[in-house]
Structure formats: C-alpha cells, structure tokens
Amino acid sequence: MATLMDVKTSFVVVLLHCFLSLATLFCIFAFARGNPNVPCKVREREALLTFKQGLRDRSNRLSSWIGEECCMWRGIGCDNITAHVIQLNLRNNLYDEFAGDEALEQSQLRGVISDSLFELKHLHYLDLSGNNFTHAHIPSFFGGLQNLRYLNLSFAGFVGTIPHQLANLSNLHTLGIGGFSLQVDNLEWLSHLSLLKFLDLSYVNLSKASNWLQVMNMLPSLSELHLSSCELDKYDHVPYVNFSSLTLLDLSSNNFVYSTFNWMNSLTSLVTLDLSYNLIQIPLTVVHNMSCLRNLDLSRNNFSSTALNLFYNITTLERLGLAYNNIRGVLPRALGSLSRLTHLDLSLNHLDGKIPRFLGNFCNLQLLSLFMNNLGGGVHEVLGNSSACISKNLEFLDLGGNRLSGTLPDELGKYQKLSVLFLDGNLLSGPIPMSIGNLSSLRTLFVSSNQLNGTIPESLGHLSNLEQFSISDNLFEGSVSDVLFSNLTKLKILYASSTNLLTLRVSSNCQLRTLIMNSCRLGPRFPAWLQSQKDLRALYLSNASISDVIPSWFWSLSPQFEWLDLSQNQIHGSIPNFSSAYSIDLSSNNFFGPLPHIFSSSIRYLDLSNNSFHGSLSPLVCEQKDKMRYVQVLDFSKNLLSGELPDCWMNYSDLRMLILGSNKLTGNIPSSLGSLSALELLSLKRNNLSGDLPMSLQNCKGLVTLDLSENHLSSGLYIWLGNSSASLRVLVLRSNRFHGSIPQEYCHFNLLQIIDLSHNKLSGFIPQCFGNLSAMVRQVSGETFRTTEIILIMKGAEYEYSQSLSLVTSMDLSSNNLIGEIPEELTSLYGIRFLNLSHNQLHGKIPEKISNMTLLESLDVSTNQLKGVIPQSMASLTFLNYLNLSHNHFFGRIPSGTQLQSFSAQSFIGNHDLCGPPLTPSCVGDDSSLEPTPNVDDEGDENGNRGPSLNEAILKVRS
C-alpha cells in the first residue's frame, strides 16, 4: 500500500516533470499512410514478414500484417509516390501509460530482430521502444539504414554495448537508446551525427565515457539532451561550448559531487535544466547569463538558502525545482523577483522561519511545494492574504510536514483552481472553514496529523470532484452523515484513522476504492454500511474495537479485495474458504477452526497470527500450493496448529518470510525448507520440533533472521549454515539440545548482530575468531531488515524485540558446558551491548581490555569458575546498567567508582574473597578513623621493604 509520502511525491513528480516527457517529442512525426493505388514493394513486404516470424506477439498487435498491401498494415508508413516503406513504428504505448505489470508484459513484442530489416533501405523512421527483446544486443546492421532520421530503441530490453556502427546514420535527427543494461566505453561515434537535434541516453552506463561533454560539443544542432541516471561523475574540460542551441539539458540522478559547470555560461538558449538527484556543490552564478532560461531543476544537492539569491537575474524563470537538497535558512527576498514562476518546488529541505508573504505575489504560480521543511508561523501568511494574487492560478499546494500553526483562514475558499491541497503533518488547530466548499476543482485534500477539531463542515459535501480525502489523527468529533458523502460521487480514497471521536458512515452513492480507518471506534458490531461498498480494493480496519462475527455478506465482497487488514480486533468465529488477493492481515483476533483455504494466485502476504486456529498446515500449504506459489510472507504464529511441518516447500520459490512460532508443531524440520532460495526470515520458535537440522538449509543463502529457539532440536551445529549465510544478522537457537563445539565457520557471519546459543549442551572453547564479527565491532547503523518478534533473555529478564531489533547487538552463550578462558579477542567487539557467558565452566580472569567495550549495557558472567581481581577499568563502562559477576572465585576489592557501586550486592555474591561496597562496607585492613603511620604498608621495614597490599596478601593466602 502506498504511503501518504509516496502519493504526494508522485503528484509532484508528475506535475513538475511532465514537460520532460519523451513521448512528446517522439510523437511529433506524422505517419505517412499507404496509397492503395501504389502497390507495396515485394522485397520489402517479404522482409517485414520475415521480421514478424521472429517475434512473439502475445497481444496480436501485428494481426493486420496479412495480404499484399503492406503499406496498409498497422505501424507501417510508406511514401505516397514510390510506395517504399519509410516508417516502422512498433512503439509499445502502454510503457508510457504505466499500465499494470501483466498488461505491460502482454503488450510487449519479444523475440529476435531479423536482419531482413536491412532490406528497408528507404526507412526514415524506426521505433521499437517499450518492447522486450530480452538480453538481445542492438543489431549492428541498424548502422546500414543510412536514410534514418528518427531511431528510438529506448527501454526495449537491449543489453551490452551500443554499437559504434550507428555513427553511419549521418541523417539522424532523433536518437533514443535509454535502457537499464546498456553501456558505452567511448562516445566518439556520436560526433559523426552532426544533424542530431534530440538525444536520449537515459539509464545507459556512461561511467567510462569521460569524453561525453566533448562529444556533445561537436553537435551544433542539438536541442534536447537527456543523460539521466547515466552514472556520470565527471567530464573532460572544454574551452568553449559549441552546442548553444540547446534548450533542454537533463543530467539528473547522476553522481556529480562537485563541479563548476562553467561551460553552462554559454547555453544562452537553455529553457529546461535538470540536475536533480545529484550531490552537486555548485556556484549558482553560472546561471546568470542564461537569459532565456525558463525551467531549472537542481534537486537533491547541497545548497544553502543564500544560494537562492543568485537567481535574482533570471527574471524569465518559469520552473524552479530544488527538491531533495540540503537548503537551510529562510527564503531570501530575491526569490520574489521571479514573477514569472509557474512551478516552485523546495520540498524535503531544511528551510525555517515563516513562509514569506512575497510568495503571494506570484500571480502565475500553478504549483507550490514546501513539503517536509521546518517552516513555522501561521498558515495565513500565504492562504490568508486577501490581496495576494497567488490564488488566481494555483492548482497544487503542498505545505505538509512543517510546523505551521494557527487556524485555516476563510480566504482558503478563494483558490478556485486549486486541485491538490496538502496541509498534513503540521500544528494546525480549529475547525475546517465552511469556505472549503468553494473549492469546486479540488481533487485531493489532506489535513491529517494536525490538531484540527470541531465537526466536519457540511459544505465539504459540495466538493463534487474530490477523489482523495485524509482527516486522520486530528481531534474531530461528532457525526458525519451519509448525506455529506452522497454528493462525493468521485471520492475513491478516504483516510480516517485515529479519529476516535468521530462517527462516520459512507453513503452508497460514494463508492470507495480505498478505506483506511485504523484505530477508530467502529465496534462493537461489524459496520453494516460496508455492505453498500461494491468497489473496495483496500480496506484497513485494524484496532477498530470490533468484537463481532464477520457477517456472511462480507465474504461475498472478498473477491474484490486486494488489501484487507482486520487485525487487532476481537473478531471471532471461523473463516470460510474465500478468494482474495495480494495482502490479507487477520492477525490478533479470536478466530478459530482450521486454516481457511485462500483461492487466489495473486496472494503475496498472508498473516493469520495470534488467533486460535488449530489443525494441520498441510491442507492449506500443500493442497493450495498452485494457488499460493507467489506468496512472499506467511505468518501463522501464536496459534494452536499441530502435526508435522509440511514437506512441500519446494513450490514456494518466492517465499521470503515464514513465521510459524508458538504453535504445537512436532516432528523434524523438513529438508524441502532448503529449497526456499529467496527466504530471508525463518521463525519456528516455541514448538515441539525435534531431530537434526537439515543440511539443505545451507541453500538459503539470503537468510537474515533464523529463530529456532525453545524446541527439542538436537545434534551438533556442524557447519549447516557455514559460509553460505553471509547475510545472516540474527541467529537464535536458545533452549534446544544442540551439542558439540561452536563451529569456527560462524566467525564468517560478518553481518551478525545477534547470536543466542544459550541453554543447550554445547562444549569446547569460545572461538577466538568471534572477535572478528564485524557487525559487533562497530556501532550498528540501525538499518532495517526483515524481522519478526524475537524473544531475547537480557539483564536477567525476557525482552521482546521487533522493529527496534536492528539496533541490538547481543551475544548469549549462557547455560552450556563451555570451557577455557574468556577470549581477549571478544573485547574488540566495541559495538556489542549485551554479553551473557553465565552458567558455563569458564576459568581465568576477566580480560583487562574489557573497558574497550564502551557500549556495553549488560554483562553476565555469573556461575563460572572465573578468578582474579575485577579489572579497575570496568568502572569506566558508563552505559553498563546490568552486571552479574556472582558465584565465581573473584577476590580483592571491588573497584571503586560510581558505576560499579551503583549495583546491588546480588551482582557480586558467591565470591567469598571479594570485598568492598556494595558487597561489604569495607575490606580487611580498612580503618578510616586512623591516620596512616610509617609502618610496613607505607615506608617499609627496617630494610626499606614495603609490606604486601591487600590484594597481594589475599593472593598469597590463596596460593
């Protein structure tokens, strides 16, 4: 499900960048149609038919390619006089319309491009873009079609190096070869295309072509240049720029870090400049001489707000995009001179201060986005200025994600052309003004995550064009009648989560596609008004206080659902077999009975955890394997499932998360689990599983989290994970019957943050190479990874981790039969926070360098055979808040310092020769009431020898 940020970002991207659309230029050519009085050339018709034979045309786009008159075939254009084929247009238009995956794949031509096309000697126009000639190289014979003026091969599945033979196309005006798997080592061949006006190499890897700027400088006719996402980070110096006719330059999404871009001074015809999604530090004075500049996008850079002053002289600027940058400070007044601006995007920066009033003077402004900054003050600075002319043409306004306060002004109703309004994520208060009903063009209204209160005004029902509406997380109250919704016939998406004091009922006139009402008080009965919603695709009613049986009419709606979330309620009863798609979350309810059968080949996510389902997994997992073969997440944990684990997992090649913990499953772990090559998370904890671990698990090379704790698994650990689990971050095997030594191969788990082998029968030494576990050597970054709820025993108690697990570093080897000393190498684990080696047979001393473990929060080495004095350096472990050294053979004084003295005596008991606070008030020989005298302790005996210290004396006695 798309997040609100995704929705807002897509709006901005579409509105700001539609003027860069390739389709606009690619469609400017008028197609010649065949003259029925001039017959098609036989050789050319045969060449086309041979070409067709090599293609797979699933959508029958070439069904018209029959008969004698090839000039009348779809996609073919002929000269009206000579009847030679001059145009071949097989562009897949669905590629530009962002169709669904299945529709796109169905429409794409595939197969092999026959060299019979070389017979089309008179071809002027060739377009194969948007198809899928998978893993094919661009045919070099295209370079022989020397009459070509237009060639578009963009995003057609081609791979490899672009052939230099294209240099022979000296008549070419338009060239598009954008693609994800294409590359060039040198662009010198492009310099031969002197007539080129339009060039698009987007997504082609040009990292080795440092001469790209020099080559472009040899194309004096070039008008548009698209080099987006080309891995560019540098360019060779050019003394002057010769392609001054350039009107559009797109260098977005590259790797430029620093450049003066002085050569841009000569681009006096530039209309559109896009340097977005780079990390450029650039003196913006270079744009002063671009007197014709109308569009400028320098997004995702590293500017301060003072750099905006440099736009003062560019009075013709119409589009200014600086999103995704590090712009700080207040908006300078110089920006107010750009009176022709139609699009201004400064979203996702660090702007502060108030929204300047001069923005109200931008009479031509159609789009204003200040989303996700630190802007404060009242929203009336823009919306409440009655004399501002910004209201005349503004269509898109995004002020979300700031710190704007105050109430919404009545002047809001003046924005007659406003189509999209985002005010979410601020500190706005008060009611929604009645004037909101005047915004007759409004299609999107987001006011969620504020402090708005009062009732929803009835005038909102006048917004007959409203399609998306979000009021979540406010303080609204009262009842929203279905009369209000009866006029919102175009409303498709409604976000109303956490509006706990609001009673809401949607009219049948309003047919929603997405309804999100998480954490609303809809219960205790299941909302009957949902029965009228015949077009729902996404329904989220999590934590909605429903404690009812799901009515039968609801399951009849299930075929239309793509996303269904009824989790965290008290819904009870059994679930019938039903058909649904993509994502189902019924977790944390009171459902019982056997697992339902899900008849849907589209399902990707299924969560039935924390209910009372019983019986076997096999009927659902094995009998429905053909229906569920694309599922990625299965969570049936915390139920009453019994029987053995099914052995049919070889049918689930896409499965990434399998969570079956806290059930009553028995038997062995089946070897077919090893066929889950995409598996990232496997949790089988708290069952009654037994037997050996299957060696096939080493095939799960992408495994990140493995939790097999609290079962009856036995045998040695061997190297059943070994070097194949380089991705492993969480390994929890606690409370089983594993025996033997800890394999040295575990030291290769460089991403391992959590290892729990406690409460087993492991023997031997702690591997010294554990000090090489690099994820514990450094402080973890908090990077999220696939996980589930993990139970860890830390600080003497049980803790449950889920989302915060990425910040935990822990090693628990307790309650085994480990011997030897604590390896000094462990002290190099500077990032570890929890270390438990208790209840083993370890001997020797605590390593002196333990103070290197500066982030240590919990240390437990109790119930071993450790001896010696406690290192004084432990007093410097300032994060330590749990310590257990009890039941060992430590002696001497507990090191002084507030850190160790803050623990109770329980941390040190069972060490009979240990003394000092907090265990005892003092040590033998302490007498604070006496002044020191010159005896053997201070000045030595008559021979000058000092007496033994307290710790030395105790050591002598023990020896």
The helix content is: under 10%
Low-confidence stretches: 9-32, 281-289, 928-959
Q: Label the structural class.
A: mainly beta
According to CATH, the homologous superfamily of the domain at 701-923 is Ribonuclease Inhibitor
How many strands appear in the DSSP assignment?
61
User: Which of globular, elongated, flat, extended, rod-shaped describes the shape?
Assistant: globular
Fold and architecture overview:
The chain is mainly β. The chain has a domain at 701-923: Ribonuclease Inhibitor (Leucine-rich repeat, LRR (right-handed beta-alpha superhelix)), CATH 3.80.10. Helices cover 8% and strands 21% of the residues. It contains twelve helices and 61 strands. The strands form eight sheets. It has a 33-stranded mixed beta sheet, covered by helices on one side. A hairpin with a 6-residue loop joins β2 and β3 (85-89). The protein starts with a helix and ends with a helix. The model is unreliable at 9-32, 281-289 and 928-959 (pLDDT under 50).
How would you concisely characterize the structure shown here?
It contains twelve helices and 61 strands.
Topology:
Blueprint: H1 4-17, H2 22-26, H3 42-53, E1 55-57, E2 76-78, E3 85-89, H4 101-107, E4 109-111, E5 125-127, E6 136-137, E7 150-152, E8 158-161, E9 174-176, E10 181-183, E11 198-200, H5 212-216, E12 224-226, E13 248-250, E14 272-274, E15 295-297, E16 319-321, E17 328-329, E18 343-345, E19 350-351, E20 367-369, H6 380-383, E21 396-398, E22 405-407, E23 420-422, E24 427-430, E25 444-446, E26 451-454, E27 468-470, E28 475-480, H7 482-486, E29 493-495, E30 501-504, E31 514-516, E32 538-540, H8 552-557, E33 563-565, E34 572-573, E35 583-585, E36 590-593, E37 605-607, E38 612-615, H9 618-621, E39 633-635, E40 640-644, E41 657-659, E42 664-667, E43 681-683, E44 688-691, E45 705-707, E46 712-713, E47 730-732, E48 739-740, E49 754-756, E50 761-765, H10 774-777, E51 790-794, E52 797-801, E53 810-812, E54 817-820, E55 834-836, E56 841-844, E57 858-860, E58 865-868, E59 882-884, E60 889-893, H11 898-901, E61 913-915, H12 950-958
Parallel strand pairs: 3-5, 5-7, 6-8, 7-9, 8-10, 9-11, 11-12, 12-13, 13-14, 14-15, 15-16, 16-18, 17-19, 18-20, 20-21, 21-23, 22-24, 23-25, 24-26, 25-27, 26-28, 27-29, 28-30, 29-31, 31-32, 32-33, 33-35, 34-36, 35-37, 36-38, 37-39, 38-40, 39-41, 40-42, 41-43, 42-44, 43-45, 44-46, 45-47, 47-49, ...
Antiparallel strand pairs: 1-4, 2-3, 51-52
